[in-house]
């Protein structure tokens, strides 16, 4: 096994035991980038020499006994919404082509302090306003969408061109590409990870979180990221915590919510089968399955768009009026649509969110975790714009991909996607676990227990 193939946890163990140096690991991943990146388009920019210098410094620190923890010497990619001092933050859009960060974002600073090494910035759907990231190709099939908007981060992790990466999630933008590329994605509780220095799409829906190879890896990154930052008004005042899940697979006493409504409606048959099989595995580990009804399902899409579109429009108002031609067409149309929404529309969406949060809180008193598909279908072809369901319903691809992930953004609950197999064409399928606010330890425990019953996952076959 080459160093670039190692999970974060395995690489961390090897570095701590001095069986692997940060220089060897970073060189291996950079070599992998050189070979795979021309076929994938995961990165906006790669800072190879900067990464090599940081790896050399990390190796010197380790030799001196100054080990910073499990992220020491681990190479990462950051979605190009996340500021790093001295580097461009383009949001994969011409609108921000001249922007250069003057300071680190909170998350970049925390990862640097933990010893992680920046490889470069990963692509996003322009301005993070989309679910496909068209400039990036799926790591399993280059003719299919990567998912979005954190498509570059997911493809980098799935292909071995980053050991881990950060994404952002406003309606599913971590979980969707993670599921479509066969990796783990975590959207934390709203406010758990600070967003200072991160380009916004929708302030009341935006989250920052990790994309990794394993659930244990996600826990290691979350441990470094979480914690209060007064510069983010939504940041929660919670004590520092170690999110690493305990070893073992016993889930006795845990109640898993199995949705009777919404999450299995208009879902690809092979996705439904794979997710139900994985839920059965959780039951075999001792969990109790409890059927639940998802509340207020008819209002989910309207609430998501009713919040996101006006907030995105407000953020981009100035540049949309002065340089509209610099926006990607699909993004510009959505932003222009925001001007057609009234204050009353926005206030009704906020009221709907308040009611939905209360109903979800009541539902989550009955169960510890809800298990469901992450997305209703595997990655579609890059030129496909709609999907037709067996009942004749025609749905836009982006609408389909956001449909099962947006409830966690509206309500702010944590959500984790874990790979649970492949369809007949070999494309990955993801299971989504949703929990109570600040319920990350339980989600990570369940996801980790499931992973331990499965064979080790290989990197993407087409990468």
UniProtKB/TrEMBL annotation:
The record ties this protein, via Pfam families, to: Amidase (PF01425)
Gene Ontology MF: a single term: catalytic activity
Q: Which domain of life is it from?
A: Bacteria
The record lists the membrane-crossing segments as none
Any idea where the Amidase domain is? 24-444
InterPro entries assigned to the protein according to its UniProt record, in alphabetical order: Amidase, Amidase_CS, Amidase_dom, AS_sf
PANTHER family named in the record: AMIDASE AMID-RELATED, TRANSAMIDASE
> What name does UniProt use for this protein?
Amidase
Whose protein is this, by species? Streptomyces chattanoogensis
